[in-house]
Amino acid sequence: MLIKPLLIYLADDDQDDRMLFREALDEIDMTIAIEDFDNGVTLMDNLLNSNKALPDVIFLDLNMPLMNGEECLHDIKNEPELSQIPIVIYSTYVDEASVQSLQQKGANLFLEKPDTFNNLKKLLRKSLEYANNSNNIVLTSKFIISEKSY
Question: Which residues have CB under 8 Å from 97's CB, separation 6+?
Fold first, then answer.
């Protein structure tokens, strides 16, 4: 029996970060397909293209030009056919008020970018385990995934 790969959309304006995320995801023992985008506008164009498969999870960098992660989150959650896709917002900086606002606006998780590649793999695995589990309700205390949370 063929297992359908988990389709991940990754939006980040930093090419090095996209490459690092790809490498970390490639090393996770899961069947994964990744499409990456360098800005939120291109991501939204792909999400709204009816000829493209919808992703199983979306990773959004919070700080991108043209359309940032928060703006993408708003647009995705306001599109009925997209609103159920799990969204993981990530950033190097955690501001409690902003993170709480993102959760209220519909983000499923907030991933604090770790300092090491191995920790990135661990945090991405944890995020994907969540995304693979439908109908998740995340307690506020577990909303933030960071090196401190494992």
Answer: none
For residues 101 and 16, give the distance between their C-alpha atoms in angstroms, rounded to a whole number: 28
Q: What share of the chain is helix, strand, coil (3-state, %, to 5)?
A: 40, 20, 40
CB 18 within 8 A of CB 12: yes
Which of 104, 78, 73 has the alpha carbon at shortest distance from 91? 73
User: What was the pLDDT predicted at 143?
Assistant: 60
Residue spans of the domains in the chain: they are 6-149
In this prediction the pTM is: 0.87
DSSP 54: P
State the CATH class of domain 6-149: alpha beta
Angle, to 10 degrees, between the axis of helix 69-77 and the axis of helix 40-47? 20
One-letter amino acid at 25 equals L
pLDDT at 6: 87
Q: How many residues are listed for the chain in this entry? A: 150
Of 68, 67, 61, 63, the C-alpha closest to 88 is: 61
